[in-house]
Amino acid sequence: MDIIFENVNYTYQPNTPFSHQALKDISLEIKSGSFVAVVGHTGSGKSTLLQHLNALLQPTSGRLVLGNVELPGAHHEQIKSIRQRVGLLFQYPEHQLFEETVKKELLFGPKNFGFDLKQVETELNDSLQEVGLEESVLDRSPFELSGGQMKRVALASMLLAKPQVLVLDEPTAGLDPLGQKKMMQLFKSLHENKQHTVVLVTHNMDDAMRYAEKVIVLNQGTVECVKSPSELIHERDRLKAIGLDVPEPVEFVEYMKARLGVLWEEEDINEQTISRTLVKHLKGGATS
Ligand SMILES: Nc1ncnc2c1ncn2[C@@H]1O[C@H](COP(=O)(O)OP(=O)(O)OP(=O)(O)O)[C@@H](O)[C@H]1O
Ligand SMILES: [Mg+2]
Q1: Residue minimizing CA distance to atom 28 of ligand 1
Q2: Same structural domain, 144 and 277
Q3: How many other CB atoms are found less than 10 A from the CB of residue 208?
């Protein structure tokens, strides 16, 4: 399903002294089946934007189209169908989990959406394995688990409801490096093999550049720009100006140019173009 924001504004606690406009005139499009990253400094509106995608929040003004459903103004059944089609993994898993046991937690979504629970029970073990959890967690309370394990339970629970769109709010934060890499590989394979749309909020610019087809850059509640990774590498100064990390390969190329006098002639910045240019430089052919 295509997702279209048209001049969307969102204000928390309107008409109170605590009123805060978190999204300002957001217009953008997320195509069905695409992999999109959302980056921005803390407080730029990433989580607020994501919570609109499964109608947890609705625009204060403007229009949001989620497939065949339009917000605001959708009725209860339409919202329910959006909640099933768009899975949202919260930034803080403890805000998402509430059942007594992991097993109950995993079955909650499918039960709520009227799935055949006997069938879902046969999928539980595969699902745990997919997200990197042992079967032994099934009878434990989700609140006894580590932050990383809770995140994995919330992810398994989301996937068992078979959403088309995976909305992931910093899913790898708090995981060890290997865990982060495996989880990113899982999203990549769900995107490539099952054509899921993926919308990923991350503070890791390298992940955004490596996995996403488009990167949405938010700045103080507005869309600063929407760029492909190969376009974003030319936005080093802009990213720095709004307090974002510059991807490591981009910094490395800057270093090569400034310190080693390397002449950079490639369009893309990646392992291949860096090693190609370095070899050329060492042979005396890429020196500025
Ligand atoms: N429930 C709320 N009530 C009032 N203001 C809020 C509420 N939730 C968020 N905000 C404010 O809205 C703005 C955007 O918050 P949001 O959580 O979307 O940012 P974010 O980009 O996800 O930040 P982070 O990287 O820290 O997760 C912030 O200024 C925040 O303080
Ligand atoms: Mg956030």
Answers
A1: 43
A2: no
A3: 25
